[in-house]
Amino acid sequence: MTAIPDLQSFVYRHVAAFGFDPSLPGQIDAVAVGWLGSTVPRSGQLTSAQLAVLERVVADRHVDTGELGYHTCEICLAEVSGGTEQHSRVATIHEGRGDAVLCHGATYYVMPSMILHYVREHEYLPPDEFLFALDQVNRGLRQGSP
Ligand SMILES: [Zn+2]
Prior knowledge:
five-stranded mixed sheet; alpha+beta; 146 residues; globular; 7 strands; binds zinc ion
């Protein structure tokens, strides 16, 4: 999959009719989060509340036909090709499809659904401003106004 540095602006295009919200524009000025290549830029742990919001975003705000399409975890791939059990471990390579969009204020954070795999399996820690957005969403959910 295409690696994009965290918080880099990019134009995200998808088929709006297939998204979680048909009113979401088909072309979005987006901010990239979690478009990792073969390395984890920052390691750490999300709080359980942040992880819960992230899981909800990936489940509820899923966009399937994004142009960046099908993702294979290059970190898993690098581990496999660098190891001795080259063939037996291929089945463990994680692949995912689709992207998710978190709207926060005027910002659209677009992430691959693979971000959950990166967080859980590779201890990827997203940028602070994105974690802050997750905290804000969590606070909104607790107050019953998502
Ligand atoms: Zn992986």
